[in-house]
Amino acid sequence: MNKWLELLIGLVLLVGMILVGWASSAYAWTLFGKNLNFLNAAWVMLKGAVFWMVVLIGLLLVVIGISDLKE
Length: 71
Hints:
Elements (H helix, E strand, L loop, with lengths): L2 H24 L3 E2 L2 E2 L2 H33 L1
Antiparallel strand pairs: 1-2
Helix pairs in contact: 1-2
């Protein structure tokens, strides 16, 4: 694929998702009585990803430390 086309599609997707996230939090988007706040969902997922990344880095450091103690 053309590099400029890839860049354009990436920018359109990025700006589009930012606008969808903003609009879903600014206005009341509901479907079957459930709130569709995509910005809140993205924030919750980001916090969860950071939490699990820190846990896995800690686990990796413990395993590396135990491996170093064996030598």
